[in-house]
Amino acid sequence: MIKQSPDIVDHLISLNPKFEKLKTPMVKVMAKVATIKMIAERGDFDVDDLIGKIDVFINKNKK
């Protein structure tokens, strides 16, 4: 997801400061194994809610 839409990182951080870790070099390692479910849990989001927020962000930026 980050490879396809690198600006998603700033959006995720705006949703929850816990996602600030996505700006560290470790993200390259974690991006290979992390799932949306894992990201949602770390950010205290319901999976469907987080997917919805990501979907809105990506579709808004396609225009």
Automatic annotation (TrEMBL):
SUPFAM superfamilies reported in the protein's UniProt record: SP0561-like
Any Pfam family the entry gives: DUF1858
Boundaries of every DUF1858 domain copy: 2-51
Protein name: DUF1858 domain-containing protein
Species: Veillonella rogosae
Source species taxonomy: Bacteria, Bacillati, Bacillota, Negativicutes, Veillonellales
